[in-house]
Specification:
472 residues; alpha/beta; seven-stranded mixed sheet; four-stranded antiparallel sheet; 17 strands; 28% helix
Length: 472
């Protein structure tokens, strides 16, 4: 009833005489036409429930408001009315008036198609648009234009909303990793997964592969299996982040395109000549830019595939001379290469940064620093030495995530961090789940604690958890 009243109101407000004055066809009965109110596109019922994409089935003829403009002032008027002009993918908003009385008249005037959600009558023009029409001598008369909409003119959300069952969530969002679109489809969307994948490819230039993360985990390093929904099966992605190029097999390593800002934030803290010890380096999003900044980097990752692509990316960016790579458990890396190098590094004045980006479990690895340099008092350094700065990531579902991650860090270290730390909120991973970063200077009493506690988490369990962050 509401829709019928709207149709009647629109028709009688505009008036039949106004329609004919534009030279546009305005049939009295429009049973075969689709009125644009409340939206421009009303999907044909036949596409509901479609699982194999049929692009032709989305074709539809609608009518939209249009205004007739002399060609002598066309460009100026179009510019003045750009806020209310129709804008659709692949559609021209200025069209020929094919239904005018004479060829001469059609050459002297063209039609500007208007957005029906903004304009249904001349009264809808704002002061700015009305003034422009008056200044350029354009008659403020609105007619209707029959417009053919095809699949190419629709947005991905419109296509999926037309196909999926009414009332269900429509997913058109994805994470882009090079040429790959990575989706996390819900159960009710799975019957339409291949259609969804094809729509994403059609509507996003440069995307040639769409994958859906499944819940099956079948490897030691908990790499989520990727099901190809549409397009090619090539999983070797090439990405650019903050001016740095990376290549990797997305199906076998961890990469999160949402962390570019955080990578840049940490790298901005580094100075030429500093040393970086990257405990869970992955394919190098901290390591490579740190090396490009002039730092000496010791980078580690347990996953052999991550280790291989880490080495590849250092060569790709011509910083392999600045990076030493390791393929160890994170705890072994701290207790081995880090322990061996810290005493000498601490004698210098350059900064020492230890990055621990494994949000699911990195906080539990902090106990590896207890007694790292031994309990002997004579080995304790003077106050002039440089103590390492740790940047450790963690997830929190608590009401006060800052207090939560700080408390867990102190518990793992066995020492207070009050006055020597900061906590940064990285991003919201999921409802009631935050990714946090605790940055602190390792306390003297931790490095020289008599405790040499070895128990705690060890990889590959943490690496499995790291891949799980992609769920956020």
């Amino acid at each position: 009833v509401r829709r019928l009243l709207t149709l009647l109101d629109v028709y009688y407000c505009r008036g039949a005489s106004r329609h004919s004055s534009l030279g546009i066809a305005f049939p009295e009965a429009q049973r075969n036409m689709v009125d644009p109110d409340p939206g421009l596109y009303t999907p044909p019922p036949a596409v509901r429930g479609m699982t194999v994409l049929d692009r032709e089935a989305f074709t539809q003829t609608i009518n939209v408001p249009a205004i007739r403009i002399p060609t002598s002032v066309l460009n100026k008027v179009v510019k003045s009315l750009k806020k209310v002009a129709l804008q659709r993918p692949g559609l021209k908003r200025v069209v020929d008036d094919d239904q005018t009385q004479t060829d001469a008249d059609s050459k002297e005037h063209r039609l500007l198609l208007l957005d029906p959600q903004n304009i249904s009558s001349v009264e809808n023009f704002g002061q700015e648009e009305a003034s422009a029409l008056k200044a350029f001598g354009v008659k403020p008369e609105i007619g209707r234009y029959e417009l053919k909409l095809t699949y190419d003119n629709l947005k991905s959300e419109e296509v999926l909303r037309a196909v999926l069952p009414e009332g269900q969530d429509v997913t058109s969002g994805f994470s882009r990793v090079g040429h790959i679109a990575h989706m996390n489809l819900r159960d009710h969307q799975l019957p339409y997964k291949n259609l969804i994948g094809q729509v994403i490819i059609d509507k996003n230039p440069g995307i040639t592969c769409v994958v859906n993360k499944t819940n099956t985990i079948d490897s030691t390093y908990r790499n989520f299996q990727m099901e190809v929904l549409a397009g090619e099966s090539n999983m070797v992605a090439k990405v650019r982040e903050n001016g740095v190029f990376y290549e990797f097999d997305f199906s076998r390593v961890y990469w999160n395109p949402r962390l570019g800002t955080e990578h840049e934030r940490i790298v901005s803290l580094l100075r030429r000549g500093d040393t970086v010890l990257d405990v869970f380096a992955g394919v190098g999003p901290f390591t490579v830019p740190a090396a490009r900044r002039g730092c000496t980097v010791f980078a580690n990752d347990l996953n052999p595939e991550s280790f291989r692509w880490l080495q590849h990316n250092t060569k790709l960016n011509k910083v392999e001379a600045k990076v030493t790579t390791f393929n160890l458990d994170g705890r072994e890396f701290i207790r081995g290469p880090v322990k061996e190098r810290l005493p000498e590094l601490m004698k210098g004045s350059a900064g020492i940064h230890i990055i621990m980006n494994l949000p699911a479990l990195a906080l539990e690895f902090l106990d590896a620093f207890r007694g790292l340099l031994g309990p002997d008092q004579e080995e304790e350094p003077s106050c002039k030495v440089t103590f390492p700065q740790v940047h450790c990531y963690g997830f929190s579902k608590e009401d006060d995530p800052q207090k939560d991650v700080l408390g867990r860090a102190e518990a793992a270290l066995g020492a207070s961090l009050q006055g020597c730390c900061s906590v940064h909120m990285v991003r919201n991973v999921a409802p009631n789940k935050e990714m946090m970063c605790v940055s602190f200077t390792v306390p003297t009493e931790v490095l020289y604690s008599p405790s040499t506690k070895e128990e705690g988490c060890s990889e590959p369990s943490p690496k499995r958890q790291k891949c799980g962050e992609a769920e956020g």
